[in-house]
Amino acid sequence: MRGFLALTQREIGSYFSWFTGYVLLALVTFLFGLSLTSLVHALNHESIHLPLTDLFYQTYFYWLILLVTAPVLTMRAFAGERSTGTYEALMTSPISDLQVVLAKFTGSMAVYTILWMPLPLCMMVLRHYTENSNPIDPGPILTTCLGILLLGGLFISMGCFASSLTRNQIVAAILALAMDTGLFCLGFANRALPVELHWIDRVLASVSIIDHMEDFSRGILDTRYLVFYISLTVFFIFLTLKSVERRRWT
Amino acid sequence: MIQVRQLTKHYGSHKALDELSFSVNRGEVVGFLGPNGAGKSTLMRILSGFSAASSGSVHLAGFDVVTHTREIWKRIGYMPENNPLPADMRVEDYLSFRGKLKGLSSKKLKHRKEVVIQQCGLSDVKQRFIDHLSRGYKQRVGLADALIHEPDLLILDEPTVGLDPEQIRSVRRLIRELGGKHTLMISSHLLSEIEVTCNRILILHQGRILASDHPDNLGRQIQGSSKFIAEISATAEELNASLSQWEEVKEMELENADGPFTRCLLTVDSEADIRERIYQTAVANSWALRELRRVSFSLEDIFIHLTNKDSFRNGKEPKEQ
Question: Nearest CA to CA, how far is A119 from chain B (Å)?
Answer without folding.
Answer: 30
